[in-house]
Write a structure and sequence with these properties.
Strand content: under 5%
Shape: flat
Largest sheet: none
Number of strands: 0
Radius of gyration: 22 Å
Structural class: mainly alpha
Length: 74
C-alpha cells in the first residue's frame, strides 16, 4: 500500500463515510428516543460504577507500567 505524506480529504472521506453515517443515524435515534420517552436514571449507581472502574483501571495501568519499567532494565 502506498501512503502519501498528507492524505487528501477525499481519500479520508471515502474510508470513513459509512461509519460516520452509522454513528449519525444512531445519534439521531437516541436523541429522538430521549425526547419521546424521557428516562431518568438514578445517579448513585452510575457514580459508584464509575469510581470502581476508575480505581480498577488505575491499578491495572500502574501494574503494567511497573512490569514495563522492570523489563526495561533487563
Amino acid at each position: 500500500m502506498i501512503v502519501t505524506a498528507t492524505p487528501r480529504l477525499s481519500q479520508i472521506l471515502s474510508e470513513v463515510w459509512r461509519p460516520l453515517l452509522g454513528l449519525f443515524v444512531w445519534d439521531v435515534v437516541v436523541t429522538i428516543t430521549y425526547y419521546v420517552l424521557p428516562f431518568h436514571a438514578p445517579a448513585l449507581p452510575l457514580t459508584l460504577f464509575g469510581t470502581a472502574l476508575a480505581l480498577f483501571l488505575g491499578f491495572r495501568d500502574n501494574s503494567a507500567y511497573q512490569r514495563w519499567w522492570e523489563s526495561r532494565g533487563l
